[in-house]
Write a structure and sequence with these properties.
The protein is an alpha/beta fold. The chain is built from six helices and eleven strands. α1 links the parallel β1 and β2. Pfam families: LRR_4, LRR_8.
């Protein structure tokens, strides 16, 4: 397959852009022509640029020639999809207390919008500025993977809404995290949260989650708020382990029986 130049996978049930393109990039390094039309891609908006940015040898995608300007735009998007030191400095704050406001937005959003307390790399030698970061808002950055967060040991409020994430990962060292928002991504499983024992607020709405079992809710003793709206959930089994829940949002899913509410008896 290393010499394959043309591939047509149209009219299938492919959905996960990150995983599928990783396979193509690894095993078809000289692929020139690709047709992926009529599949079930997650977040189809911006799909073309995401694929061109990852498969740099493409000259034609879905029957349309790849131009120089399009390639440049795709490469810029790909470069911005990685969490770098620059993006952390730009989008983080060091406030130790949330702002007092009547806004219904999360602390990560309000602090990013109204606070001017950014970390100062020039003042803090030896990268000590990482330890001062309490807030991170990386909404809408085309991020495909949560990485380079291991030094943010005092992070309390974080938002990664409207990105291209397919997996919850990279948060094991952020054990002071109280608020986490991952709305509008491509996440299919709840995982990677079991070390976040201080987590109180979790937003996973507008994703592709279909199961709530084996999620580690029993390892989140402070979890009070959970938003799972607009997913593909068919059963509430697993929520009985979220013993501290006081707010649950689960509209617009695929639950078929009102009897599913019995799984909530333990946490109500």
């Amino acid at each position: 397959m290393n010499s394959l130049l043309y591939l047509d996978v149209s009219w299938n049930t492919l959905s996960n852009t990150r995983d599928e393109m990783a396979v193509l990039r690894k095993y078809m390094p000289v692929l020139s022509v690709l047709d992926i039309r009529h599949n079930y891609w997650q977040k189809p908006e911006g799909l073309r640029l995401r694929i061109i940015g990852r498969l740099k040898t493409l000259t034609k995608l879905d029957g349309v020639q790849v131009g120089d300007e399009e390639t440049a735009a795709a490469l810029r998007m790909a470069a911005g999809s990685r969490i770098s030191q620059v993006s952390l400095l730009m989008h983080s704050r060091t406030d130790t207390e949330p702002l007092r406001t009547l806004s219904l937005q999360t602390h990560a959003h309000t602090l990013a919008m109204y606070s001017n307390k950014k970390p100062d790399r020039a003042v803090d030698l030896d990268n000590n500025w990482y330890l001062k970061v309490t807030t991170l808002n990386l909404d809408g950055q085309h991020i495909s993977k949560l990485s380079n967060l291991e030094r943010l040991e005092n992070l309390q409020w974080a938002s990664f809404n409207n990105n291209d994430l397919t997996k919850i990962e990279g948060l094991d060292n952020c054990q002071k995290l109280e608020e986490l928002s991952l709305e509008s991504n491509c996440i299919t499983r709840i995982e990677g949260l079991t070390r976040l024992e201080q987590l109180r607020h979790l937003n996973l709405s507008h994703n592709y989650i279909d199961c709530l079992e084996h999620t580690g809710f029993d390892r989140l003793p402070q979890l009070h708020y959970l938003d799972l709206e607009d997913n593909c959930i068919t059963s509430l089994a697993g929520l009985q382990r979220a013993l501290s829940l006081t707010e649950l949002y689960i509209s617009n899913n695929l639950v078929e029986s009102v009897r599913e509410i019995f799984y909530l008896k333990v946490c109500l």
